[in-house]
Input
Amino acid sequence: MALVKTLVITGYGTNCENECAYAAKKAGADEVSIAHFSELITGKFKLEDFNFLVFPGGFLDGDDLGSALAAAQRWRHARLDNGASLLDELNKFVSKGGIALGICNGFQLLTKLGLLPALPENDKKTPSYFTPQFSLGHNNSGRYEDRWCYLKVNAKSPCVFTKNLDFLYLPIRHGEGKLVADTPELFNALKENNQVVLQYANPENKMPTEEYPLNPNGSPEGIAGICDPTGRIFGLMPHPEAFNDKTNHPAWTRGESSELGTALFVGGVNYLKSI
Output
């Protein structure tokens, strides 16, 4: 059984690192560390020492130029103090079977960086990492949305984080959460590959919806979270780490409850312990 060593990355506007670290610990991770981006550069923390990466929410670089765009360039061009490419180190992490969870701003970063959705290109079956194919655009409402949303889980998805889950209720808080792509073909490929993991849903019929405010940003077909072809890299706009106890539920005093958001972290931990 593999030890689950989790690294939560912070810095430059990230603000949910402590909640993510707590959620990982509660989910059963054996080791959990929080590292500032600069500590990756100096070598204090090395990606090769971990098998679970968490990219938390926040406002990387103030969302200047677009959410997480500046941060994606930092990852692409950063050099470690020993001269190695940080992007190469991240590629090695993915290639050796590590898992990654990007939440809200972290999801925006993974799409801008090209780790999601990594749709295979030119009829190849291998994921096309580091080639941006999608992005997250401004909410249709034209404003920042802060509310709880119902989410339908795609049971056919290969996502390792959502195994045995069906329906979730999680908080969202973002201004740029609508999944966008240059062509309809990209959306079709995403659906055909079952890389759509979560969709905003109507609680009455548990079906995906584009109706506001059930769908808070206007994302096509209610897409709220996607994964790479392997299911090991997962990004979502809702904040699972913010629902880590029953008392976080907005109606818990009235006896209402639902699956904790930490269940997604449990899924990742269980996957690593099973390989």
